[in-house]
Amino acid sequence: MAKHTGFIEIRRKNAPYRPVHERLNDWLEIPHPLKEGEVQEQATRCMDCGIPFCHQGCPVHNIIPDFNDMVYEGRWHEALDILLATNNFPEFTGRICPAPCEASCVLSINEEPVAIKQIEVSIIDKGFAEGWIKPKPPEKRTGKKVAVIGSGPAGMACAEQLNRAGHLVTVFDKADKAGGLLIYGIPDFKMDKAVLQRRLDLMTAEGIQWQLNTHVGAPGHPSMAQLRQEYDAVVLTTGAEQPRDLNIPGRDLDGVHYAMDYLTQQNRRNLGLPVDGPDILARGKTVVIIGGGDTGSDCLGTSLRQGAVEVIQYEHKPPLPSKRPEYNPWPEWPMVFQKSTSHEEGGRLEYSMATKAFEGSNGKLERLRGVRVEIYFDETGQRFFREIPDSEFTIETQLVLISAGFTGPVRQGLLESLNPRMTRRGSIWTNQDKMTSVEGVFAAGDNVRGQSLVVWAIAEGRDAARGVDKYLTGKVRLPTAFSDQVAS
Ligand SMILES: Cc1cc2nc3c(=O)[nH]c(=O)nc-3n(C[C@H](O)[C@H](O)[C@H](O)COP(=O)(O)OP(=O)(O)OC[C@H]3O[C@@H](n4cnc5c(N)ncnc54)[C@H](O)[C@@H]3O)c2cc1C
Ligand code: SF4
Fold this sequence. Notes:
Layout: H1 6-9, H2 20-23, H3 36-43, H4 53-57, H5 64-72, H6 76-84, H7 90-96, H8 100-103, H9 116-129, E1 145-149, H10 153-164, E2 168-172, H11 181-184, H12 193-205, E3 209-211, H13 224-230, E4 233-236, E5 242-243, E6 256-258, H14 259-270, E7 286-290, H15 294-306, E8 310-314, H16 341-345, E9 348-350, E10 353-361, E11 364-377, E12 383-396, E13 399-402, E14 406-408, H17 414-418, E15 441-443, H18 446-449, H19 454-473
Parallel strand pairs: 1-2, 1-4, 2-3, 4-15, 6-13, 7-8, 7-13, 8-9
Antiparallel strand pairs: 5-14, 10-11, 11-12
Helix pairs in contact: 3-5, 3-9, 5-6, 5-9, 6-9, 7-9, 10-19, 14-15
Bound molecules: flavin-adenine dinucleotide (FAD) and iron/sulfur cluster (SF4).
Residues 96-97, 149-155, 172-175, 180-181, 185-186, 190, 215-217, 237-239, 241, 263, 294-295, 298, 413-414, 445-446, 451-455, 457 line the site of flavin-adenine dinucleotide.
């Protein structure tokens, strides 16, 4: 701890956001970075706690007090080494992680937490700007070949770890570009796609091979049986792509779409790529987004940038409280209402609403019918939603985006043919080494956890790489998220 009184003297400072009127006219990232001196000042707020709860909150167990100390002292290169020891892609998490580390920072018991995410992104961005980050191909190859199916953050982290351990890795993806939800889900205003491409280029230079436009398990594409024969191990990092649908009257009307179809189209347009199917656009429309999570919020920001007349986002749950309730104490993740950058930009948020039907004419959506709902508990204590009598409503709308979450990995094709053990929640079961019930086949990321966070996908990918390496070599050589040490 470099400055004992830093946390008393210095207030937290966040990276300032560009004004709303400016950012609604472009797709660029929202924050202006803090200056180097300001980041160093923020790092002095760290108390170097005896028990650093920030570690416990961070899924990759970043060694936060140590890099804070290095930043304070201006030893940025050492800070970078500490950061990269636990996190393959701090340039992603430093931009889009909701920062569970900050929620569990000891300062946040009665103060604003250390600006850990801001410090993290400043370290890695400086690392790139200074040219410190270079491809690190392995010195020796093991002669083992691994297929990673799915190029999202879990697949990328797994591939990078395995490649550095000397295995020859090929990453397969059904999409035409690598990155999973980082490329075609998360909008550019949250993370510039150049940040992703820079990392993919590094990985390619390190020797990782990519086989895109390859839908494993689909007719005319490689089957799981083929890959298992050709590779020494296979890792499934296929995400949780099955969207939760609304099976209600009018679902097939033109104008009712899944959120992911909508977001993918806009990300492709920004990349100058053609879109699949007819354009889904919000310009001049009243848009209704059904679902209140990250995906819904990204649809809101996208609709506003596309020039929607009005955007209403609702969910069936009541709003979260503004302060931690007693049953949700520090250092747990706070179940409180948090405004996203999109919420600051416009739109109307509504709660306790359910959708009953979509209506229209000539096959086109014109309105939505819904009802207000409330929570009640039955005699066994189980929670249900029930309709509030006489609370029906109608919204005239030309575009509905269904953002009601994801039910797990897609079963059709790959999983059907492999038939691994699944959990009751519909995710792939794995043992502690991330091996599925099928010998030599591993799984990591959203297909194991359910739709989650980029930082969890990285943690899972690292753990799967360790499991695969142990399976192939009989030794524990790669770090775990828990020990962060390389055992021999
Ligand atoms: C709209 C949206 C916004 C989000 N925003 C955030 C955020 O701000 N911060 C955050 O931390 N998290 C966010 N998340 C969650 C985060 O993106 C995911 O948790 C994370 O991407 C999961 O990584 P993954 O590698 O497990 O899966 P994915 O990123 O889903 O990647 C899976 C990949 O597997 C490929 N694939 C699937 N099946 C096959 C097959 N049979 N053959 C070949 N390829 C296949 C897919 O094409 C895809 O590229 C968001 C999610 C969504 C949907
Ligand atoms: S919990 Fe907060 S104050 Fe304590 S070491 Fe971690 S970042 Fe620093």
